[in-house]
Amino acid sequence: MSYQHILVPVDDSPISYAAVEHAEEIAKAFSAQVTIMSVVAIDPFVGVDFYKVAPSITEYVFEAEKNAENRLNEIKQTLENHGLQVNTKIIREVPTAIGISTVADEINADLIVMGSHGRSGFKKFVLGSVAQEVLSESRLPVLIVKQ
């Protein structure tokens, strides 16, 4: 088995950076290309009266995109300094798992490496699990890095 293109979805959590480290080692072993991505989504529970909250949503989205872009560029620079070929991608306004699947298809990834916060029980029920959804829906191998 050989991997040519590894997709690594990240957020601002430490577990995302652990996933990047795992992806880096795999990419070095297989001389693979890496795409680091983030999903910026509007909170579906905001906006009961959209016209009253639109400015705050716009500011939130602007800040989230700026933070995601900075994070991706920082990771890209680090991996490029370590000799890897790296692309970045920001997906907007879709559920995270769908965004990850969309990018995986778009770039013809053959491996997804992502972190999992390891929630269980009630927290998992309320907050969901992006990693679980990607793992169950993906046709690709998925490496889950846990805390």
From TrEMBL:
It holds the Pfam family Usp. InterPro entries: Rossmann-like_a/b/a_fold, Universal_stress_UspA, UspA. Residues 3-146 form the UspA domain. Keywords: Cytoplasm. Its main location: cytoplasm. Coiled coil: none annotated. It is found in: Cytoplasm. Belongs to the universal stress protein A family. This is Universal stress protein. It comes from Acinetobacter stercoris. The lineage of its organism: Bacteria, Pseudomonadati, Pseudomonadota, Gammaproteobacteria, Moraxellales.
